[in-house]
């Protein structure tokens, strides 16, 4: 862009305006897609100046015709139900996919990439399930594959992981990457409500879908965890590699326990690198609710916001915060990728290709080192603590803190462990449940962030 | 990188290892430079895998020879005092500058860029004072200019602004970009200490330099504000365009006033875009202490951490958080840029060039719309509030809230205004100081973040 644009804030530029347009095919025109269309038209002059040529939408694939979308009339001539036909057109440079799901999205994008078209996608499920198919097709076609919108919506997160941190060694990524569950847990924390009540509120306010399974059972977060782990550790990680525990089991009592510890509960996606028990450099990728101290930067992330906490050897602690969902924020990330892909079309440059050289093994959850907070109702008689402590010792789990509170016959033990293999911790809980002196296990939660 | 690396976490790669090295010249080997050398050697295998070829340091320019640095022996043959000679060598691909200051750094980097060498620099003063010289030289030489480390150290911030947000319209950037002053203000907030006492503590702990002027008077933050504003608004902004007010005037009383309002005080760098009084799209760039509500994400940024809050039309609110200074965190950002530049050397690609098409005018501070918090000691008699309110009205400043507290003859008025041109607010304060019924103006602070 060595040309001389006009002064005074006008981004028009004759030399640039004269360049042929970069032609965009949009697959899907729902909440995100229609915002992409609107913003692309509204900011047309700015985008042209930034790219060096105008962007032009040449086709929009939708499931059903007959409805105006993205401010475009029904008879604009742009809408089609033949997505594959649109992808195959010779006059398409960049394919933008905001449909979601594995098929037929995968077939469309593989076709686009193999034939050298640039792809911008927000499809986390597909990337987590079979990112390899896309990356391989991109390599075959020497094509750009951008997917910033697939994780944490508007937050510029993947480009930093993909590029800025490439001189560093990322050791851990801990994220709140699902707005629905964060809204529910923030509300449980604030009001003392139980899960069902908080979910109901979230549904009424439009934060939760009619079927909230993908969110509350952690499927959505697990897909994002796989994408983040792949980028952070230069290793292909798929959704199948991610241990997943949803947050439907978090009770008002758990939240109260957390509060007593100066903590709150968040549904976290965690991707961690380090040596396993045998000393092998490996990664653990998991999604589960966890207690974190209120002093942790993630604890203050309320409402439906997302945030991702990154720890790297040289950079230290970093956090990225913003809106993780919604049509307009997600469209911001999609448009940023479209600008990058369009610039590359003009210059012949390419995005950094997939970096998967490290091929680190992924540990099963049992071999992940975690910490537990366990809340027990026990008989109030001498020797209880000794018996309980013996169970921990048998499973080689070291206890960090114990708090004992007795009220007549009803006594409570609150135990926080040091880090231990999750399998040992789970076995400890199982053994405790079989002790006669343990009346009930009131709460078991994993702990993160240095409680 | 289509090659097949060995399995098992080993980043060595025969095909890539065979490629000739990308040759790096380092200018400066102090705190940051020696960490760059250390990390570059320590992570050599990983960096080679990520780049596709090894990195090799071919020379290090220092002011004085005779000292081992970065783990390299004195007689390594790498050290030289002739920086310009090093830059001009034919066997240099990437020039990394961590010396700082305007000259001779500018001459070195302009020479490097003009002759097509890639430049990675952490030099905020130079970029803010005369970034144009560097960008123009980069355009002339078709060379890469990367400077992630110049603002907010380890935080990946410039790449997101330079690339990820290019499909969006940034409206405001509000940052805590100076760790020293943030440490001092956080300490004043926590302990009630005055400025001098907190500065002394910061000096003892190594957070403040012997001469803290650049930090506490806001020069450092102003340079960073210019760089952020240039990127956010596609407009060349220099240090001279930035209004700067240091934080040496912030008193323990100011901090107490802020606390009473549910606020804290931070030294903020602010870059804002919007229509001025005449409706002209323009930017305001300023550094000054300001009250922000404790609920604002920036309020919780303690210690010497940095954070930058970005507001964009589509993305909404974003925040980037991390370590803004220190040898190792800054080296992380420098190394990320080295990897990007080195990759480009191999592929022939280039970083996105400077984007300055918008040419927005920069408003003087008087025309910036700000809000004031004013704490007055007044006579306790009827008519005082009416007289005071009259002064605000005369200067066309609208009052948001007034709190009046009288104790015998000593009464206090705490006033927070709505947004108004800063010149009107300053004139209001001047007029108030001349009112007989105003005994003293206890505190005047700008307010940000929706108090």
From TrEMBL, chains A, B:
Keywords: Amino-acid biosynthesis, Methionine biosynthesis, NADP, Oxidoreductase, Sodium, Threonine biosynthesis. Coiled coil: none annotated. The keyword NADP applies. It catalyses: L-homoserine + NADP(+) = L-aspartate 4-semialdehyde + NADPH + H(+); L-homoserine + NAD(+) = L-aspartate 4-semialdehyde + NADH + H(+). Its cofactor is a metal cation. Residues 373-446 form the ACT domain. InterPro entries: ACT-like_dom_sf, ACT_dom, Asp/hSer_DH_NAD-bd, HDH, HDH_cat, HDH_CS, NAD(P)-bd_dom_sf. It is an enzyme of class 1 (oxidoreductase). Pathway: Amino-acid biosynthesis; L-threonine biosynthesis; L-threonine from L-aspartate: step 3/5; Amino-acid biosynthesis; L-methionine biosynthesis via de novo pathway; L-homoserine from L-aspartate: step 3/3. It comes from the Bacteria. PROSITE patterns: ACT, HOMOSER_DHGENASE. Its EC number is 1.1.1.3. Belongs to the homoserine dehydrogenase family. NCBIfam families: PRK06349.1 (NF004976). Catalyzes the conversion of L-aspartate-beta-semialdehyde (L-Asa) to L-homoserine (L-Hse), the third step in the biosynthesis of threonine and methionine from aspartate. This is Homoserine dehydrogenase. It comes from Paractinoplanes durhamensis. The lineage of its organism: Bacteria, Bacillati, Actinomycetota, Actinomycetes, Micromonosporales.
């Amino acid at each position: 862009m060595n040309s001389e644009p006009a002064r005074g804030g006008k981004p028009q530029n004759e030399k640039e305006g004269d360049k042929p347009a970069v032609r965009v095919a949009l697959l899907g025109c729902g909440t995100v897609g229609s915002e992409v269309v609107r913003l692309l038209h509204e900011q047309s002059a700015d985008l042209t100046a930034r790219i060096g040529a105008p962007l032009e939408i040449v086709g929009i694939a939708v499931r059903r015709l007959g409805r105006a979308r993205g401010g475009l009339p029904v008879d604009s001539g742009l809408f089609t139900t033949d997505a594959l036909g649109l992808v195959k057109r010779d006059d398409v440079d960049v394919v933008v996919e905001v449909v979601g799901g594995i098929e037929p999205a995968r077939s469309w994008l593989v076709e686009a990439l193999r034939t050298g078209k640039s792809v911008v996608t927000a499809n986390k499920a597909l990337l987590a399930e079979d990112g390899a198919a896309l990356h391989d097709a991109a390599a075959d076609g020497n094509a750009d594959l951008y997917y910033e919108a697939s994780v944490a919506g508007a937050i510029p997160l993947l480009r930093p992981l993909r590029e800025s941190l490439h001189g560093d060694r990322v050791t851990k990524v801990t994220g709140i990457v699902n707005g629905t569950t964060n809204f529910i847990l923030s509300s449980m924390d604030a009001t003392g409500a139980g899960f069902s009540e908080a979910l109901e509120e979230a549904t009424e306010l439009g934060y939760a879908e009619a079927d909230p399974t993908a969110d509350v059972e952690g499927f959505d977060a697990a897909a994002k965890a796989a994408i983040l782990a792949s980028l952070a550790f230069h290793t292909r990680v798929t959704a199948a590699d991610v241990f997943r525990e949803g947050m439907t089991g978090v009770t008002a009592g758990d939240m109260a326990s957390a509060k007593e510890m100066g903590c709150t509960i968040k549904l976290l996606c965690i991707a961690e690198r380090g040596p396993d028990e045998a000393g092998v450099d490996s990664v653990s990728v998991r999604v589960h609710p966890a207690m974190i101290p209120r002093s942790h930067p993630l604890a203050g992330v309320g409402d439906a916001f997302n945030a991702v906490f990154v720890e790297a050897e040289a950079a230290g602690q970093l956090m990225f915060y913003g809106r993780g969902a919604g049509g307009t924020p997600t469209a911001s990330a999609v448009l940023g990728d479209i600008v990058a892909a369009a610039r590359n079309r003009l210059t012949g440059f390419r995005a950094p290709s997939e970096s998967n050289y490290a091929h680190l093994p992924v540990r099963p959850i049992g071999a992940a080192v975690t910490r537990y907070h366990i809340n027990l109702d026990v008989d109030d008689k001498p020797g209880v603590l000794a018996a309980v402590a013996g169970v921990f010792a048998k499973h080689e789990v070291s206890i960090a803190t114990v708090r004992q509170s007795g009220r007549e016959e009803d006594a409570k033990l609150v135990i926080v462990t040091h880090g231990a293999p999750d399998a040992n911790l789970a076995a400890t809980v199982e053994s405790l449940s079989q002790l006669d002196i343990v009346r009930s296990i009131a709460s078991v939660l994993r702990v993160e962030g240095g409680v």
